[in-house]
Amino acid sequence: MTQHQEPAVTFALRTGRAYTTEAELLDPAEAWGAALAANEIREGILTIQAGEEEIHIEDDLDATVQNLCLRATVELLAGREARMLYFCCAGEMILRPEGAEVRISGDFLTMEVVLPLRALVRSLIESARRFLHLLGVMNNPRHVQLIVLLQEQLDTADAAWLATEGAKA
Known about the structure:
The protein is α+β, with helices and mostly antiparallel strands.
């Protein structure tokens, strides 16, 4: 089996003309409210990094978190291939489980990446949890339905994780 560094999944949101990392967004000393409110679509970048291997997904973060961090993780934990359609442009990312690893390929990726499946799933779920927390911190009434939807899907992903704990690959 190939040895891989544990993957880390992080996100950054567009705030005006620049991107602001999740750590900066959750810093209570910073005032991101106006910039975040102006970003109605919540365009951003989700990054999967494991050592030298790095994938950047620049898209609508609501859709990326829902489709990759939550829906795809449930499929992967069930041993099924997952496909994530990009929201802002035509194309898809394919995640194919191969034993204890997952092969990631698709449009807009410069190469295929193979990562440890459970470590990637755990990192994706935790990134979704942080994104959901950020939406709550923003305290925007327009986010209520999205928060409810993402929380339900997070609960499903958590249940799938727990259900497969005894069958770790």
